[in-house]
């Protein structure tokens, strides 16, 4: 499944229709007054990178679609690619179910509907990693994507497979009833390879590494969905994982992001009008703007790698504590709601605060709205035998921690369209925007220089 507005929602034609309906996506163009590098140049990230806090010495694993490492934006990048998936069925010239290197260029992909799925997964994977280590090279005279952690080592693991197929049917080579999903293998391989941060914008589960994530051995970041259908497909709570959504250049949530998400940790930059790439028929790439929470997750992951460079003594758990505490651009007690999480990431505040002052425990282990500040007590033998499955219910007892001073939680919008198609989703947007704008929202941050 794809998590970006520009991805596959039943094929590229549907993706284009959805993008048009929502006013976002590749090829639509950013407003004339919005720099496509705004998520980098207007948030303080550029100053952080220029100061040398650029991910050097850190390893970030990306679990996504295929990648074209020959694209000019990766000329200076350190990227290691490994595939855990095979091609989907029906792609002429590509053997179904075979394991590939994970590296493709647009010119290698045959035409046709099945080939379009591979092409879209390639576009998605290439753009997600470009938000980490892209060099901003001009493409046809237009700015290409620029990465927020350009010196980090990237482990790019392909877990796309048959992008929108039933995950039990040929999603990944060698998976299904006889073995774990390729994505589970990829998460474990990333940890074994020494990843400091893992990010995935494919809606995968981090369940195979739950113990390592919750223990603070690795940081995991994933995006919220762009619509209710994708939210529902990825709504399982994953304690310890930083789930993020994005704001626009004006500091507001996008008009199409009209539903709440009770798993939101923070809101970061880059969800709309940011520099990206789209494949050209026959080979190569052209510059475009891209939209979707898919492109926020790598920005947040890259910022955490940069933060680790500045504060090498801080633990991974303390880096996440700092992320959720240093939001907005004014002093405040931690507060949470299910649209903005703990707030909008404020880069200057984040890099001015030494994370080692915070508790050395992942803050996202308990109920949202409560920052975990103490390690959870191990269950007794009797509790572990009868313990219920984790639940997203607000009535679940939180891990010992620090409650939000003013949660301001908003009820989950009850109207859901999951099968009515793009036009129906656009209708939901029209109705729900009014409801969303009626919410009392904190003021967006004003960007200051780092």
Question: Which secondary structure elements does this structure contain, and how are they paired or packed?
Answer:
Blueprint lengths: L11 H11 L15 H4 L3 H6 L8 E6 L13 E6 L29 H21 L4 E2 L2 E2 L9 E6 L23 H11 L4 E4 L9 H5 L4 E5 L4 H6 L8 E6 L16 E6 L4 E6 L5 E6 L6 H14 L5 H10 L21 H6 L17 E3 L8 H6 L14 E3 L17 H17 L13
Parallel strand pairs: 1-5, 1-6, 2-5, 6-7, 7-8, 8-9
Antiparallel strand pairs: 3-4, 10-11, 12-13
CATH architectural grouping:
3-Layer(aba) Sandwich
Q: Helix share of residues?
A: 25-40%
| Average predicted confidence as pLDDT | 75
Strand order within the widest beta sheet: 2-5-1-6-7-8-9
The largest sheet, given as strand count, sense and whether it forms a barrel, is: 7 strands, parallel
CATH topology: Rossmann fold
Tally of individual domains: 1
Please explain how this structure is put together.
By secondary structure, the chain is an alpha/beta fold. The chain has one domain (12-27, 38-280, 287-374, 400-437): Rossmann fold (3-Layer(aba) Sandwich). Helix content is 26%, strand content 14%. It contains twelve helices and 13 strands. It has helices at residues 12-22, 38-41, 45-50, 113-133, 182-192, 210-214, 228-233, 297-310, 316-325, 347-352, 381-386, 421-437; strands at 59-64, 78-83, 138-139, 142-143, 153-158, 197-200, 219-223, 242-247, 264-269, 274-279, 285-290, 370-372, 401-403. It has a seven-stranded parallel beta sheet with strand order 2-5-1-6-7-8-9, with helices on both faces. Helix 1 (12-22) packs parallel to helix 12 (421-437) and helix 4 (113-133) runs parallel beside helix 8. It is globular, with a radius of gyration of 20 Å. It starts with 11 loop residues before the first helix and ends in a 13-residue tail after the last helix. The model is unreliable at 1-28, 162-180, 387-399 and 405-450 (pLDDT under 50).
